[in-house]
Amino acid sequence: MHYEIEKHRDKIKRISKLTDAQLNVVYTKVLSHIHFINEELIPEKKWIQAGELVSDIDIDDIDFIALTKHLKGSLWTGDKVLYNGLKKKKFKKVYTTPDLLKIRQAAK
Questions:
Q1: CB pairs under 8 A, 24+ apart, for 29-38?
Q2: pLDDT 10s digits, 36-75
Q3: Total domain count for the chain?
Q4: Torsions phi, psi of 56, nearest 5?
Q5: Which side of the chain, N or C, has fewer Cβ within a 10 Å radius?
Q6: What are φ and ψ of residue 4, in 5° steps?
Q7: Residue 12: inside a domain, yes or no?
Q8: What is the DSSP letter of 57?
Q9: Which of 70, 62, 69, 59 is nearest to 93 (CA)?
């Protein structure tokens, strides 16, 4: 996740309109609320399943899918290619921000 944030840092900065100093403060605050899991704790079976899912979508996303499967969780992504590819493969626990907003509105 650290890598992904740094990879998209310029985009985050541009969209947020934050200075470098402000972005560093926000980055530190956000990370303080995230519990990172060592990838070595994810069973091999989950890596294989994740690899099968993303091999023709984007293999760089294998770790997110393996972790999602391991935790029996849901994946929140802004990656349209990944989202559409997973939906096409009937992976049901993947959401975009608009999906989550709809769920939130329905719960009110």
A1: 34/1, 36/1, 37/67, 37/71
A2: 888 999 999 999 999 999 999 999 999 999 999 999 999 9
A3: 1
A4: -105, 10
A5: C
A6: -60, -40
A7: yes
A8: T
A9: 69
